[in-house]
Amino acid sequence: MSTIGHLINGRVVTEGGRKQEVYNPATGAAEKEVVLATKATVEEAIACAQAAYPAWRDTPPIKRARIMFKFKELLEANADKICELIGQEHGKISHDAAGELQRGIENVEYACGIPELLKGEYSKNVGPGIDSWSEFQPLGVVAGITPFNFPVMVPLWMYPMAIACGNTFVLKPSERDPSSTLYVAQLLQEAGLPDGVINVVNGDKEAVDTLLNDERVKAVSFVGSTPIAEYIYTTANANGKRCQALGGAKNHAIVMPDADIDNAVNQLLGAAFGSSGERCMALSVAVAVGDAAADALVSKMQAAMADLKVGVYSESSNDFGPVITAAHRDKVVGFINSAEADGANVVVDGRNPEVAGYEKGFFVGGTLIDRVTPQMDSYQQEIFGPVLQVVRVNTMEEAMALIDDHEYGNGTCIFTRDGEAARYFSDHIQVGMVGINVPLPVPVAYHSFGGWKRSLFGDLHAYGPDGVRFNTKRKTITQRWPSAGVREGASFSMPTMK
Ligand code: NAD
Fold this sequence. Notes:
The protein has two domains: 2-247 and 455-477, Aldehyde Dehydrogenase, Chain A, domain 1 (3-Layer(aba) Sandwich); 251-436, Aldehyde Dehydrogenase, Chain A, domain 2 (3-Layer(aba) Sandwich), CATH 3.40.309.10. Helix content is 38%, strand content 23%. It has helices at residues 39-57, 61-77, 79-89, 94-111, 114-117, 153-164, 179-190, 205-213, 226-238, 261-273, 291-305, 326-341, 377-380, 396-405, 419-428, 464-470; strands at residues 2-4, 6-8, 11-13, 18-24, 29-36, 121-127, 130-138, 141-145, 168-172, 198-200, 217-223, 242-246, 251-255, 283-289, 345-348, 367-370, 387-393, 408-409, 411-415, 433-436, 452-453, 456-457, 472-480. The strands form six sheets. The chain has a seven-stranded mixed β-sheet, sandwiched between helices. α2 packs across α7 (179-190) and α4 runs parallel beside α6 (153-164). The longest helix is centred in the first third of the chain and has 19 residues, at 39-57. It starts with a strand and ends in an 18-residue tail after the last strand. The structure holds nicotinamide-adenine-dinucleotide.
């Protein structure tokens, strides 16, 4: 059984620490093991990042950018291996893994523009002979803590920009599928990064708590479930760190009476069941406005779902793979059971899918549940599985109120042909990322990603322009060079330009 270790100061370290099994969710077998870092191991990684910081901070941005250009080339050249590692441990199908990698690469491309992004702001003659400018300086050691569902993309939201800004980094990936994350960080090392600038420590709560409590760590980016996001945010803040903590979601799609239902069905299929619904932007609730729209949606969706193919990652004709663990499969099935017990109608039942040759895999088939109500547990909580629930309402206002009342506010979408309704929706809905006939409105790398309400704790969104701000602190300098012999007297009033 191979052992997955840490990347510390440019070296892969596998000795020491507790170990945990890493499963192939398609076979249900533990095929690898990962070393869980002790407090001492994480402290060593932080010390290496701290030692690498002064020289990296002073490395010209154009040189940092060149390493990012090389990194992008290596990611593209090694795409097949990266997707294979994602598939083995996460289970997502190769075409979906390739999409995840591409989205990650686009964040590296954005970081390649760091000389432009760090130009700062300059004002000449803010007073007689006085110039003023703002510059954006790195923070020091930055930490990232990431979830299982995007083992390559979410880390790439974080460290390319943090490092391009002049910080050094310690990443704590998900212990459930760590290989692709570690391999990608090794590629950045290979691209020419000095030792200690990127470090990866695998581990669990012990590793996370060490990062949160060490005063050398100046900022923490987190992506994961809401209870942990809240814990990370409050602890990091109490310890004086800058923090952005992105949490869970329950993304609703409104299907208006005038929507092109065939198009909505196609879009919902991919957005609800792609990646087994294990995306924080997955559309997990369809809110149908009026019974006619609801009936059409449910019957067309039911018919389309007959063709869904669930299976192993390496067969590219499959639509989606298993969920991450046996425990998670049981949780997803538990939500389907509870919706049924609460009176909802399970129209397509994915509780016992047949996947020939992979009988022990953690599979749940595509599931469609109609007549779900907001009181149901399956509606209130994030399921994070291939389950689409349909809630029936009478008006668009009712649909919007439902979305606004939910504790999460990550993504949402409206399917309609009515521009006025779409504009009203996007203007007023209390959600951070909105799609109009676009089911997965994940912002491109040169915008920023973030939900509202309990889907994000912190002020700045992830990556894009907010990523530059998160990873730097503003310094504003005001300068005057008095002419020889010209001296002003002391003034005790507040300096103004009046
Ligand atoms: P998770 O919260 O279980 O784990 C995320 C990270 O936190 C992992 O690195 C894990 O090791 C660590 N962690 C877990 N328990 C901890 C504890 N008690 N103390 C300290 N650290 C702990 O999340 P997950 O199951 O890996 O990922 C799925 C969740 O992530 C879903 O809720 C999903 O919506 C969310 N997610 C959100 C976004 C977003 O951008 N908002 C993106 C992807 C995933």
